[in-house]
Design a protein that fits this description.
The chain is mostly helical. 40% of the residues lie in helices and 8% in strands. The protein has a domain of 99 residues. It has a two-stranded antiparallel sheet. Strand 1 and strand 2 form a beta hairpin.
């Protein structure tokens, strides 16, 4: 048994139905979220980088401010953790007390490693929520087309055209036989 053939858009319009293969227009207004106060320079750079990326994909709204702020803080914390791991190493020697109260040296994973891993997992979750992962890219709806703030150039003259003096009429070109 073969599937039903697809209706054309004209048939859908004629029958007043909506095709499932055409995405509906977006009614989500586009806009750029405000920069949060009190974030570090690297966090602000991450916020701006993601904002530009989402703006290029036409999927940024002012409501994305909080998730972008969280990502920016996680990015900053991740950078600090990586810097600490770079200086201290992934395995550190810690001093602990044994059951007799004596100091014993033991090697354990660096505590900053757990901070970095947690930040990475939460950053991926934020990126997924924003649609910036390959799996979630198609799930994000685009925002409305930005409205053109400039009117059409033919509709209104420019300032130079409006204030330009009108040229003097050429009196020699007037035919006196026609004018009485």
């Amino acid at each position: 048994m073969s599937p039903m053939p697809r209706k054309s858009l004209a048939e859908h319009q004629l029958q007043n139905t909506k095709p499932a293969y055409v995405e509906p227009e977006s009614f989500v207004p586009s806009g750029r979220p405000k920069y949060p106060r009190g974030i570090s320079g690297e966090a602000k750079a991450a916020f701006k980088r993601l904002s530009r990326m989402l703006e290029a994909r036409r999927s940024i709204t002012p409501g994305d401010q909080e998730i972008l702020r969280l990502y920016a803080h996680l990015f900053s914390r991740h950078e600090k953790a990586l810097a600490a791991i770079e200086t201290q190493g992934e395995i550190c020697t810690y001093t602990r007390l044994n059951n007799r109260g004596e100091d014993v040296q033991c090697e354990k994973p660096n505590l900053w490693l757990k901070v970095a891993e947690t930040c990475e997992a939460k950053m991926i979750a934020c990126l997924s929520a924003l649609g910036l992962t390959p799996m979630n890219r198609s799930k994000v709806k685009t925002t409305e087309q930005p409205k053109s703030p400039q009117p059409e150039p033919e509709a209104f003259p420019s300032r130079e055209e409006a204030t330009a003096p009108e040229p003097e009429p050429d009196l020699n070109s007037i035919d006196e036989t026609v004018v009485n």
